[in-house]
Amino acid sequence: MTSRPSSSNSRFEVHFDWDAFDRASTVDETTVVVAENTDHTDFRGTLIEIGDLRKPIGRVEVKRLVRSLVLLSDPFGEDQNSFRPHLYAPEFADLTRVVEDHYFSEADYHLSAVLSEGKLTAQVSDWRGNALYKAEHAELRVKANGSLYDAPNLHFDLWAFSLDGATFSTRSASLGEVKEWLRSFGGVHVYSNGLRVSPYGNAGNDWLEMNLARARNPEFRPSTNNSIGRVKVDDVEGVLVQNTNRSGFIESAEFDAIREAATDAMDWMARQRLNTAEQRRRTAVKENATAAQGTRQDVRQQIAEISDKQKKREVETAFAKYDKAREKETDSLRREVQLYRTLSTAGITSATFAHESNGNPLKVIAYSTNAIRFGLQRDIKPAYEAKYAAPIDSILNATASLNVLSAATLSLINPDKRRVAKVGLHSVIESVVATYQPFLTGRSVTVSLELAPGRPFVRGTDAALESVITNLINNSLSAFERINIPKRMIGISSRVLDGMWELTVADNGPGIEGIAVKDIWLPGETRRDGGTGLGLTIVRDAVSDLGGTVEASAHGQLGGATFVVRLTLLGVDDE
Question: 493 pairs with which residues across the strands?
């Protein structure tokens, strides 16, 4: 090992003979001589040469060395005076470049979040450095209603990469180089007061559970394989304490707050990307419809300008056939989309009932059956009314509650309900509520129906409106799970005004908490453990297909969440 300090012209050299160390019983038995010589070269730093190897070093060992060198130094390259290693191994030139090169400019997204005095702010930039999204503390801390983080000040950076050939076709670095670089030290690392703390960010240490979040929504979530990040903590007061084995911090409330701040920032970035994609999708649908209509009109204009009457009739006939075939194809696709939404709604309904049944009715059945069994064992000649009527009634009520599952599911998948026709709005609502009634009664939920006079109707499908009502009721039932109140109420009301039908669904649950109102429509966003996060997305899309709008209030007329659906009516029949 040769070292040349920057503060002098001296060169220090030492030779380590590992055979001597192996032969010695203790380290003190070996002699290490450090030689000092004058050196006037410009090179400054330390050079370590390894020779006379007992066995060859393979690619796996070199990879480990590369990772250790990169993480020992500052892989982010901000401090020009920091330790900067270089690896000379001609047989593994591709791996030595990993130590030298940094590819942060190739990242598609750069998340930068700052936690100062308990308040978090964040920004996402694209690979050119242009700011895409910005957020203040309240938008980031939605899960805890804007409360402060009990954590030291920190700076969280995350670079996320799109690892596909198309993305890198115009980049300066190759896809293979970046993948190798990320394999070496991808993941989120922690630096406390300038020093890296392992094992955070090591292979297999997903301390922010990034991969689990990506599994739920792979399109907009970074993972340890396609991103690199760091959390720089300024712990001047020493509130973070390392474990006695010097591996990681004791998971105190302050450390949990650091993890929560980083997770909240990534959740926010995912929501912004998802929201942008949703807006792009909806805009594309409208633009495609407008373009198709414009093209159709252009073709008709061209046909009108044909002077040959015979040729004109032939072209008109051919176009009419084509137009009819396209309309048939569009109608088929519309039915298919509605089928998928209906199946999703049926699945959500089944999940809701299964969840509730597992938590209540099935337990009632078990307890009641045991009561009967114990009673029969004790009383050979039971007095039915006095001892067994109540348990049996409980079994019957629980069974009736469970029967709602099959009835609701079969009702939702009825193919006739996916046909475009006249939809009686109030009759669909009354049918859904009637189907749910045994289950609602078993959950101590009272539904108040206050529908406007007459029978308003629109053109669409019963399935679309059923999806709306069913998912809004499911949403209320899910909300009731998070609050303990003796009287659970769902209010469903409608009114007709100036050719518009307005439906209001409200409950007295906890309201919309822990998530911004604008984000509840995004697929995958849910406040319920094990929830799908698709119910309100289906509501939004189904209402849009019916030509209407839907809006939500965090706390409405009954105290809980309130949803208002507005549709343009075709008419109102008499009672």
Answer: 450, 504
Predicted confidence (pLDDT) per residue in 435-487, tens digit = 888 778 878 899 999 999 999 999 998 989 999 999 999 999 989 988 888 89
Per-chain mean pLDDT for the chain:
84
Rounded to two decimals, the pTM is: 0.62
CA distance 371 to 392: 9
- Please tell me the least confidently modeled range out of 53-57, 107-111, 553-557: 53-57
User: Looking at beta carbons, which pairs linking 409-415 to residues 24 or more positions away fall under 8 Å?
Assistant: 409/346, 409/349, 409/350, 411/435, 411/466, 412/342, 412/345, 412/346, 412/349, 412/463, 412/466, 412/467, 412/470, 413/342, 413/343, 413/346, 414/463
Quick one: which of 391, 366, 388, 392 has its CA closest to 379? 388
* Angle, helices 462-480/309-359, rounded to nearest 10 degrees: 30
Q: Please name which of 72, 78, 23, 77 lies closest in space to residue 48, comparing C-alpha atoms.
A: 72
Tell me the three-class secondary structure of 5-19, residue by residue. CCCCCEEEEECCCHH
How far, CA to CA in Å, does 498 sit from each of 11, 451, 546? Answer: 91, 16, 18
Strands (E), 384-434: 421-424
Residue 495 token pair: 């009114």
pLDDT of residue 174: 79
Q: For the purposes of burial, counting CB atoms within 10 Å of the CB of 272, is it exposed (0-12), middle (13-18) or buried (19 or more)? A: buried
Instruction: Pull the structure tokens for residue 268.
Output: 């926010």
Q: 161: closest CA among 225, 112, 99, 97?
A: 225
Query: CA-CA distance, 68 to 545, in Å (whole number)?
Result: 56
Span 313-342, average pLDDT: 82
Q: Please compute the mean of the pLDDT values over residues 7-19 and round it to a whole number.
A: 87
Asked whether 231 and 262 are in contact (CB, 8 A), the reply is yes
Where helices occur in 305-385 by DSSP H, the ranges are: 309-359, 361-378
How would DSSP label each residue in 440-458? HHHTTEEEEEEPPSSEEEE
What's 74's DSSP letter? -
Mind giving me the DSSP string for 465-516?
A: HHHHHHHHHHHHHHHHTTS--SSEEEEEEEEEETTEEEEEEEESS--S-SS-
- Side chain identity, residue 317: T
- Of the candidate ranges 93-97, 336-340, 424-428, the one whose mean pLDDT is the lowest: 336-340
Query: Residue 87, Cβ neighbours under 10 Å: how many?
Result: 17
Look at the alpha carbons of 139, 140, 143, 144 in this order and tell me if their dihedral is positive or negative: negative
Task: List residues bridging with 462 in a β-sheet.
Answer: none
Residue type, 228: I
By the 8 A CB rule, do 278 and 229 touch? no
Element (H, E) at 541: helix 535-545
Using DSSP, state whether 97 is helix, strand or coil: helix
Please give the backbone phi and psi of residue 238, each rounded to the nearest 5 degrees, phi first: 65, 40
